[in-house]
Structure formats: C-alpha cells, structure tokens
Write a structure and sequence with these properties.
Layout lengths: L5 E2 L1 E4 L6 E4 L4 E3 H8 L3 E2 L7 H6 L11 E8 L8 E8 L13 E3 L16 E5 L9 H11 L8 E5 L21 H13 L5 E6 L1 H13 L5 E7 L5 H9 L2 H21 L1 H5 L6 H5 L4 H13 L4 H8 L12 E6 L21 E6 L17 H14 E2 L5 E2 L2 E2 L20
Parallel strand pairs: 6-8, 9-10, 9-11, 11-12, 12-13, 13-14
Antiparallel strand pairs: 1-5, 2-14, 3-4, 3-15, 6-7, 7-10, 16-17
Helix pairs in contact: 1-12, 3-12, 6-7, 7-10, 10-11
C-alpha cells in the first residue's frame, strides 16, 4: 500500500525516443514530453489498492457534463457493412431525446452537408472501453478541460461509439471486437476530408486503447493522427484473460461483470445479429464469464477457432512496432482488469515512438483523487496540449540523429500487416 495514496510513476521507453522540434526551435525528445506532462499521482488514500479504485467506478459519478450531437455513418468497407454512431461535442443545449444517452441529440443531416472548414483548432478522436460509450465519466473528465480552455487552446472532440453501444441500434449482424479498427479509420478519413485544417489526435480507453493502437500500427507512416494517448490498455489479451481466470475475484467479479455486460449488449441487438446465422444463442444463454462470451460470440462471428486465437490476433502489443506517431501509454500496475503482466515493458524499449507510464496505484480506468476527479485526465490533457500547441509535429524529427525517413527499421521495428477475418 502506497503511503496516503501517493503513487509512484515509472516511465519505460527506448534508450533514445523520438526527437521533436518545439515551436521556439529547440529540440525535445518524446520521453521528456511525457514526463513533463505527468504530474505527481496523488490518489484518494481510502481507495488504497486497484480493487477499491476499480470498484469505486460503480458508484454514481456524474462527472463534467458534456453535450453531443450524433451523426450516423454507413460503413464504406463492404467487409464490415452496417452503420455506426459518432458523437460530436457541442455547446450545451436543452433538447431531450429519450432514445439516446443523456445530453445527446441527433445532428440534422443538413448540418454536415457540403461542409468545409478553415478552422484550425485541434480535433480529438476518442475511443471508449468495452460496452461503454460517449457518456462514460472517465472520458468526459478528459474532454472537459480541452473544450473549456482559452480560445487559443480550445479543442474540438468526437467519440466513435463501438457498434451497438451508447444506445445505437445496429443495422447489420456486425458488432465489434478488440481489433475493430474499421470505424475509427473511416471516421478519421472523414474528419481529414471535412476539416482539412484541423490537426487530428487520438485517445483510447481500455478496449478502445487496444483498438486505437491497432489502428495506428496498421496505418504506420500513413496515419492521419498527429499523436495519441491511451489509458488502461489490456495490450496482451490472452495473458489478461488467463490472469482474470486465475483468481476468484478476477473470475467472479470482473470477468463475470464484463461477460454480463456484453450479454446484455448482445441481447439488445439479438434480432439483427441472428440474421448473420453464425451464433448459437442456446450456448450464449449459458455464458457467465467474458472469455466464455468471446468463445461463443467473437470466435464464430469472425472465424476464430478459440477465444485464445481471437485474443492473440486482436492484441495490440505487436502493433507497437508499426506505430509511426508519438504515442503515450498510461496504465496502473495494480489494474485488476488490464493486468501488469500484460503490459509491453520489453516491446516499448524497441520503438522510439512510444512511452509507457505506469503508476503503482490507480486500478482500471479509475485513478480517483480526493473529491472524485480522475488523475489520468491530467497527464492526458497536458500531453495533448503539448503536442498540439508546443511541438511542431510537421517539422522533421530524428532518432539518434538519423532522419526518420531513413530509419523506419531502426531498433528492429516492423509494420504488421492489416489483418482481416474470414466472415
């Protein structure tokens, strides 16, 4: 137990991280940026371990109020047909739509017709955790200070809701999984075309962090995001699943809760999913735990013979070697869901584009301070602001004095192929 909630932050990275040019012309490396962005981690001393921190998320936490307008997209990749919902942060309004989460209404389709923008404010693309959505408090704690900043540092933001989440009704048998990068890809491409002058950044939480890392790795040097930050990523899903199953609390509390949440989500869309003809709903009724859900749903849906095969393919650890933008990862060593054993400590030492910050306390997407604020929002906001306003990301950068254009294979980095499933 750390003394009075004073957690220790440890940074893991390659010997020489990405060197970037600041707006004043001086040089700074990625590790220094991440360390400068990370304030002391002082958490609620009454929540003195990962279990207490994580379970406190079940308590009512209104968080800062964020208002959204929802735009529906039709997938432009025929392999992943169907619709998905993206919620755009807007100014407060008084309308109420009972078919959507609180403080959310639909965009009028005319609002986005033939839109063009000379606006150069940075835009944040957000991916939420398993079965979550734009309503989650952990992401609203990050959004609030970004959109509420002074005019010269104000952000725009949107949340890509995983299919079927946040009260979105799916229009095809396809839900999502831990490697579901296609909707993020389409959203980023649409944003780049619609707002050509806005620099784009990304943030992912838990499963969304895993998806975002896979997306960035798949895109490689063509990634349209300037930089990204991820929180509580599960990284190695196979290791994490085994860890959950190895203890009573992991199996009966966390795995059962996550499995139950996914069963409820599937039940909301059962009629549409049944049209795919791949699932045995009698077996699904008997599911108790998350790994059982993945065995009976994700495996048959995407052609994986076992849940282990799905976990190994969907894990984001190897995607690190395809990352070609500054990526800051924040995790808690006492996270009972995305366990410490699954963190890529060795892998980040072999890529100059990634820095891993690990706090000794914090739980899973928790990091509760006294008063209810979430500590993770502080380094996330600081890092994003540094990348958007203090660093000239467009300027040439270097690793160990070498131009990046000639150092793609430095430190053994490789770009993993974009994988698709047999459906």
């Amino acid at each position: 137990m750390e003394w009075l909630g004073r957690a220790k932050a440890t940074f893991t990275h390659s010997p020489s991280t990405l060197q970037l040019k600041k707006k004043d012309g001086s040089l700074i490396d990625l590790a220094s940026i991440c360390q400068e962005a990370t304030p002391p981690c002082r958490l609620n001393p009454l929540l003195f371990n990962g279990h207490l921190q994580t379970m406190w998320t079940a308590m009512k936490d209104d968080g800062p109020p964020i208002f959204y307008n929802r735009k529906l997209f039709e997938a432009n990749d025929k392999d992943y047909e169907g619709s998905f919902a993206v919620d755009f942060v807007v100014k407060p309004f008084s309308e109420v739509d009972a078919t959507l989460p609180s403080r959310t209404t639909y965009f009028n389709e005319e609002d986005f017709k033939d839109i063009a923008s000379s606006d150069s404010r940075p835009m944040l693309v957000i991916l939420h955790g398993l079965s979550g959505g734009s309503h989650e408090a952990y992401l609203r704690h990050v959004i609030a200070p970004l959109i509420g900043a002074e005019d010269d540092r104000q952000w725009e933001a949107c949340v890509v809701n995983s299919r079927g989440c946040a009260m979105h009704k799916i229009t095809s048998p396809i839900l999502y999984n831990a490697r579901a990068t296609w909707d993020c890809r389409q959203t980023v491409s649409w944003l780049r075309k619609t707002f050509p002058n806005r620099p784009l950044f990304g943030i992912g939480f838990s499963l969304g962090a895993n998806i975002l890392t896979n997306y960035i790795g798949e895109e490689g040097e063509h990634c349209m995001l300037k930089a990204a930050v991820i929180c509580s990523s599960p990284w190695n899903l196979d290791v994490g699943s085994m860890a959950l199953q190895s203890t009573w609390i992991g199996r009966e509390i966390y795995s059962k809760t996550l499995g139950t949440n996914m069963k409820k989500l599937l039940a909301l869309h059962e009629d549409e999913v049944r049209k795919g003809g791949k699932l045995d709903f009698e077996k699904i009724k008997k599911v108790k735990y998350l790994h059982e859900f993945d065995r009976e749903v994700q495996g048959p849906s995407w052609g994986y013979p076992t849940e282990g095969a799905y976990y190994r393919d969907a894990s984001s650890t190897d995607s690190l070697f395809g990352v070609r933008i500054p990526l800051f990862s924040i995790s808690a060593a006492d996270d009972p869901v995305a366990c410490n054993q699954s963190l890529p400590y060795e892998e980040v030492k072999h890529t100059p584009y990634v820095v891993l910050c690990t706090t000794s306390l914090g739980g899973h997407l928790s990091w509760f301070e006294i008063g209810g604020h979430r500590w993770h929002a502080r380094p996330c906001v600081n890092y994003l602001n540094k990348m958007a306003f203090e660093v000239d990301i467009e300027a040439p950068a270097a690793i160990n004095g070498h131009d990046l254009e000639t150092s793609g294979q430095m430190n053994g980095c490789f770009a993993p192929m974009r994988r698709k499933w047999q459906r």
